[in-house]
Design goal:
alpha/beta; Nucleotidyltransferase, domain 5; 2 domains; 6-stranded mixed β-sheet; 5-stranded mixed β-sheet; 16 helices
C-alpha cells in the first residue's frame, strides 16, 4: 500500500512543485489588441497536459487575431495508462485549471478542456477507454464542476482545427499540414476550396509511440546502436506501410505545394537546426537538412547543446540568451533517444514527398501546439 502511494507521489510531487512556481507568475498580461478577451485551452495529450492562454481579438476568425500569452506543458506520459501516470495527469490537469482560474483570473466559462485524439486512439488500441472516462470524471470532481464539458476531440476535427489555427489564409488551399504528436500523426488539406471538407491524413504513430515500440524491441541490449537498429525496424515495418498508404490515399502529393509539419518534434528540429531563427514561428527546411540533423543526433548529441550551437553563431546582434533558453527547453522535453524517434518519423513522412520531378516546400511550424486549441476556442466563442 505504502509503496503504491509513494510511486504515485514520486510523479505527482514534481508536478505540484512545478505548478506552485507558476502561482508566483504575473496575473495580468500585456494585451496586444484593443478589443479582445483572454481564454485558456487545456488539453490532455499523449505525453501530458498542455495549457495555452490566448488573447482572442474581436475578428479573430477573419483576421487571425490570436496572440499566445502563455504556453505551458507538464509531461506525465498519460498513454502509459499506469496508476502512477494517471495520478500525475489528473494532478496536472486539475492544477492547470486552477492556475488559469485563480492565478490568471480567467473566468471558468473562458476555459476550455479537451482530451486529444492521440489519447483516445491509443486508449482504444489498448482497451483503456475506461481510464479516459475516469480521468474526465475525476477532474470534474477535483475542480467542483460536475457539469463541465471535457470534450473528446476526434482526429478529423483536430486536424481541421489545426489547419485553421496554424496555416495562414493565403496558403490555406495549397498547404498539406501534418501534425506529429506523441501518440499519433494527423493532418490534411482542403481540396474543394472550403474549410468544411478536410481530406484527412492519419497514422497511428507519433514520437512517443515510435519510441515505445523501439524500447519494446531492445530487450536486454540498452546500447544506443541497438536502439537505432530497432528504431529503423519499427519505422521500416508497420509504420512504413501505414505512412505510405495514408499518403497515397490522401492524394496530397498532387494537390499540395507546401508540406507543413507541426508538433513537438517539428519545434525541436527547427530550433536545433536553426537556433538563430528563434523568433521565426515557421522555418523552411529541406529533406537533406533534416537527414543531416538526424545523423548528428546519433553521432554527436553533445554538439546540439546550447553552448556548442551558440559557439558557431558569429552575429553578435542576435539574442543569444533567447536562443540558449529555447535550446535548453528542447532538451528538457526531448532526450537523445526521443529526438531520434521523432526525427526518424519526420523523415519517413518527408520522404514520401521528396519527388524526383516535383520538389515540395517543407516547413516546420514551431507554435503548432496552440494551433488547434486556438481555433477550437475561436469556434466555440462564436456559437
Amino acid at each position: 500500500m505504502h509503496k503504491k502511494l509513494f510511486a504515485k507521489l514520486s510523479i505527482a510531487l514534481p508536478v505540484l512543485l512545478f505548478l506552485s512556481q507558476m502561482g508566483f507568475c504575473q496575473t495580468s498580461f500585456k494585451l496586444k489588441f484593443n478589443r479582445s478577451a483572454v481564454y485558456a485551452g487545456i488539453e490532455v495529450g499523449s505525453k501530458g497536459v498542455k495549457m495555452s492562454i490566448l488573447e482572442v481579438g474581436k475578428n479573430a476568425q477573419n483576421n487571425g487575431t490570436f496572440n499566445t500569452l502563455k504556453d505551458t506543458s507538464v509531461n506525465t506520459d498519460f498513454i502509459s495508462f499506469s496508476p502512477a501516470t494517471f495520478s500525475a495527469t489528473l494532478t496536472a490537469f486539475s492544477a492547470l485549471f486552477t492556475t488559469a482560474k485563480e492565478a490568471y483570473k480567467i473566468p471558468s466559462e473562458n476555459i476550455f478542456t479537451v482530451i486529444s485524439s492521440g489519447v483516445t486512439g491509443q486508449a482504444a488500441k489498448d482497451a483503456k477507454q475506461f481510464m479516459v472516462k475516469a480521468l474526465a470524471d475525476s477532474f470534474k470532481v477535483n475542480i467542483n464542476e460536475p457539469q463541465r464539458l471535457v470534450a473528446l476531440v476526434d482526429v478529423t476535427e483536430e486536424a481541421r482545427l489545426s489547419h485553421l489555427g496554424i496555416v495562414p489564409a493565403d496558403k490555406r488551399y495549397s498547404t498539406f499540414l501534418i501534425d506529429i504528436g506523441s501518440g499519433n500523426t494527423k493532418g490534411g488539406y482542403f481540396p474543394n476550396g472550403n474549410t468544411n471538407d478536410l481530406k484527412l491524413f492519419q497514422v497511428n504513430w507519433g514520437t512517443k509511440s515510435v519510441a515505445n515500440g523501439t524500447e519494446k524491441r531492445t530487450t536486454d541490449d540498452n546500447s544506443l546502436i541497438n536502439y537505432k537498429k530497432q528504431m529503423y525496424r519499427v519505422l521500416e515495418g508497420a509504420a512504413d506501410a501505414e505512412i505510405v498508404y495514408a499518403v497515397n490515399v490522401s492524394g496530397a502529393y498532387n494537390m499540395s505545394d507546401n508540406i507543413a509539419f507541426s508538433g513537438g518534434i517539428a519545434w525541436s528540429v527547427a530550433t536545433l537546426i536553426f537556433p538563430e531563427l528563434v523568433d521565426n514561428p515557421v522555418v523552411p527546411v529541406t529533406y537533406d537538412d533534416v537527414l543531416k540533423f538526424s545523423e548528428r543526433i546519433y553521432e554527436n548529441h553533445n554538439a546540439l547543446n546550447e553552448n556548442a550551437l551558440l559557439s558557431k553563431i558569429t552575429d553578435n546582434t542576435l539574442d543569444k540568451k533567447a536562443m540558449a533558453e529555447e535550446v535548453k527547453r528542447v532538451h528538457k522535453v526531448f532526450d537523445q533517444r526521443s529526438l531520434m524517434a521523432g526525427t526518424g518519423l519526420l523523415l519517413k513522412i518527408m520522404r514520401q514527398f521528396e519527388g524526383v520531378y516535383e520538389k515540395k516546400q517543407f516547413y516546420l511550424v514551431k507554435s503548432g501546439q496552440v494551433g488547434w486549441i486556438s481555433a477550437y476556442v475561436d469556434q466555440h466563442i462564436k456559437k
